[in-house]
Amino acid sequence: MERAKAKAVVEAILFTMGDSVSIESLAAVIEEDTETTKEILADLAQDYSVEDRGIGLTTLDDAVQMCTKGELYEYLIKIAKTPKKFVLTDTLLETLSIIAYKQPVTRLDIEKVRGVSCDHAVNKLLEYDLITEVGRLDAPGRPLLFGTTEQFLRSFGVKSLDDLPELNAVQIEEFKQQAESEVQLQLDI
Q1: Which residues of the chain register pLDDT less than 50?
Q2: What is the spatial distance between Cα 76 and Cα 16, in angstroms, rounded to a whole number?
């Protein structure tokens, strides 16, 4: 396929799909290898980088999505009037952190770390599309496994899970001591 035509096809796919599309899938459609497809995506991104364009490309893991440029969000908010906004409480952030770092993870695994029921938090995170069901554990009862979504990556401004900050051993030990002292306080009451 001619390069200009391949670029138009990629643009049409990204516009129509709305969500991210894997680079591998795009390569298969335009019958090119992934490196050539990445070059075409880079050309397309360059086209969108000029100031008078309202859209751009965002890369998330090995997928690409067409999106509105950040500096134009205020205009989208004006037209939408009621943008979808959610509030992440400490409980939701704590549950989301556990899922992000330990995924795939079951509700029981989350509850072992938190020490309390996580049903409400998991349901809210599913509603907000920050987590999703990624399968079932091969164990009695076949519990659901949860992992983060591309929306999670977009919301927290990371391109992949590898970009999440790493906890060092000192921080982990401090968290363990804090959790143990909280459990002890609850037992004393």
Answers
A1: none
A2: 19
